[in-house]
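Weekly puzzle thread! Below is a chain. First person to post its structure in token form gets bragging rights.
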Amino acid sequence: MTIKTFGALAIAAAATFFSAPTAEAEITLSSKSEAPADLGQNLNTLLGTDAPQVTTARAATLNGLFIKRRPAAAVPSLEYTEAFLAELPAVKGDAQWQCLTEALYFEARGESVRGLFAVAEVILNRVDSSAFPGTVCGVVNQGTGRKYQCQFTYTCDGLSEVVHEPRAYERVGKVARLMLDGAERALTNGAEFYHTKAVSPRWSRIFDRTTTIGAHHFYAQG
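Winning reply:
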């Protein structure tokens, strides 16, 4: 066999080897920047039954590393002014947004912008505390059903809650949306309680007053 003939045969053999279908060829990796939807399952198929199984935890880790996630919506820097709120579009939301919006409307709609954000901080601080329910609606409605034994008076004063001021409702709804989206809580120093200046509940002599904003004093358990 001449060297020329041997070279031609070698090239033909190589072409046959690289073009032959294999088990691995059945797994097609995406040409896009995103990884396959279930990377762990594909790896199990690729490695075969004799390879260690990719566990659910490992698969989740791999998916987290390689699958593109949608970035969280950016929360604008807060300005505690009416002009800032006025520039924001009207918003809507889910049940948690509605509960927070109603609480701000019935508890503090006559307050300044700072006062609105301060009351929202208290509600969300309670959500984060193990001493209170873990949702906005749970916090707002805690104790509802016993007259004047609830946490937020409007929910247990026996009066119907009707929104008569749609512009005020829209205004406080914007505050609720910002706070639920993760806006900074910079006004009340972690307060979980507040009351109006017109009253002096017993607990106000026990807790630490953190600040006073508008018609409300704010307190933390210390």
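Puzzle host: Confirmed. Bonus trivia for everyone else. Strands lie at 193-196, 208-213, 216-220.
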